[in-house]
Amino acid sequence: MIRPISTALATSVFALAAVPALAQDANLCGGVGENGQWLGGDEASSDISTTPAYIEQMALVLMQNEYVGLFTVSQDGDYRIEAQGRGGGDTVLDVRNATGEIVASDDDSGGDAASRAETFLAPGTYCASMRSFDGSPITGFVRASRMDQEALTAGFVQQQDNSVTGECNLSVAQPITLGEPVANTWSSQNVYSLRLDAPTSVSFTAENPDADPILTLFDPSGNWLAENDDFDGLNSRIDMAEPLPAGEYCIAVNLYGDENVPITVTAKEYDAQEVLQNLYDSGDASPPLDGSHPIKALGELQTRLREDVNVGGNATWYSFDVFDGGLVLVEAIAQGNGDPVLAMYDDLGRQVGYNDDNGGSLDSLLTVRVQPGTYLVAVRQLDNQTQGFIRMVFERYVPARP
Predict the structure, then answer these.
(1) Which Gene3D superfamilies match (predicted)?
(2) If exposure means fewest CB atoms within 10 Å of the residue's CB, which of 158, 164, 341, 364 is most exposed?
(3) Coil, strand or helix: which one is 288?
(4) Both 64 and 115 in a single domain?
(5) Per-residue confidence band for 361, with pLDDT thresholds at 50, 70 and 90
(6) Which residues contact residue 401 at a Cβ distance below 8 angstroms, ignoring those fewer than 6 apart?
(7) pLDDT band at 106, cuts 50/70/90?
(8) pLDDT band at 18, cuts 50/70/90?
(9) For the residues of 242-286, what is the DSSP string, one character each?
């Protein structure tokens, strides 16, 4: 459940602000934006190419859900999208275009567990989704702005050894080639360069969970383009779906972990299907029900079903059908070592439930009110390095008849 509090730009006038307008478009951003709210209060006031100041909303996110703020861009260029929790809340931010493709994603680049994405956007409508990293309730702000307007977050300015980040020195960079991974310890090499001879969409990754790497990308003029931490477990990834112009790009690698273990850095051509597959594997988006992705169909959920599954960091998917409204409980119980995570979606791809660590344990539990339809459930291990058996329990309850 999401309860918008205000559209005002200052907390002191939240109580007086009007409730923002809803998008009410079932297909917007792949279905994510159906109940999204215009960051500027209405669509006409939400074009960040022309607004005199940043636009912002404050929202309370409950029940493992997410807040979706809407904005438009009428002129292509570089823009800043941010999310910041209150009271130490750890936000996760996804920015989707009108078709539902994620064009930017971030966890901690805003500093102090806030999220910040600075990216090139083409004209169109966008959805900025804010959720809590651990699924707990969170109150926070979502802001969209041009690069010349005031930022919500401080940005990530220090790494483990307290040296200042925010620049990339090409004179000490190791050249890399598209499709050819390189591996170095952070202490021996942490700056790389990539030369593009033609406009190219590129994905960048930095991998080794023991190092917990952070990726930052800079354009040929030294301007900050994007940053990511913890895209896949503790590994990092930047997807530049919009083609990068020809030129020499600088990639900086920072870290939170061991600086003496090898970090594998890869630049490769952006693959939209691979990006979708990653979302399905992480449980961050639901796969289609057309047979293109493995989903175990449980049929009609009448009373109670039990399944045991050996699962790792990639999600295992189930689907079930409900023909009458009621309540569904889904439980994931670790058999031995394990820390399961659950996510549940309706057949349009809207997340209706998420849980990790229920009731002080590492097990997970979803309690979701459902209407007739098909639902999908993903289960995975929180730690991508863990593989173990999980007991899945599906239970359906119907309202008492008068």
Answers:
(1) 2.60.120.380
(2) 164
(3) coil
(4) yes
(5) confident
(6) none
(7) confident
(8) very low
(9) EEEPSEEEEEEEEESS-TTSEEEEEEEE--HHHHHHHHHHHTSSP
pLDDT tens digits, 149-168: 999 998 754 333 333 345 68
Q: For residues 246, 239, 232 and 293, what is the CA-based torsion angle, rounded to 10 degrees?
A: -130
Residue 146 pairs with which residues in a beta bridge?
A: 79
For the chain, what is the radius of gyration of the CA atoms?
21
What is the maximum alpha-carbon separation in the chain? 77
Shared-domain flag, residues 142 and 181: no
In tens, the pLDDT along 110-136 reads 887 888 999 899 999 999 999 887 777
pLDDT at 11: 33
Query: What are the distances in angstroms from CA 44 to CA 71, 80, 142, 383?
Result: 9, 19, 18, 44
Report the pLDDT value the prediction gives residue 172, as an integer from 0 to 100: 92
Find the domain containing 344 and state its range: 284-397
CB 5 within 8 A of CB 62: no
Report the distance separating Cα 328 and Cα 320, nearest Å: 11
DSSP 137-165: -EEEEEEEEETTSPPSS----B-TT--B-
- How many domains, in total, are found in the chain? 3
| Cα–Cα distance measured from residue 183 to residue 206, given in angstroms and rounded to the nearest whole number | 9
34 lies in the same domain as 138: yes
User: Residue with structure tokens 């509090």?
Assistant: 5
Q: Is 386 helix (H, G, I), strand (E, B) or coil?
A: coil
pLDDT of residue 16: 34
Q: Which of 270, 305, 337 is the last residue of a domain?
A: 270
Query: Coil, helix or strand for 299?
Result: strand
14 domain-assigned: no
248-297 residue pLDDT tens:
999 999 988 899 999 999 999 999 888 888 889 989 889 999 999 999 99
Separation CA 26–CA 45 (nearest Å): 21
Q: What is the spatial distance between Cα 303 and Cα 298, in angstroms, rounded to a whole number?
A: 12
Tell me the pLDDT of the chain averaged across its residues: 86
For the cut 90, the answer to whether the pLDDT of residue 17 exceeds it is: no
The helix (run of H) or strand (run of E) holding residue 44 is: none
Quick one: tokens of 159? 């790494």
157: in domain: no
Distance from C-alpha of 138 to C-alpha of 371, rounded to nearest angstrom = 26
CA atoms within 13 A on the CB side of 5: 18
Please give the model's pTM, rounded to 2 decimal places: 0.54
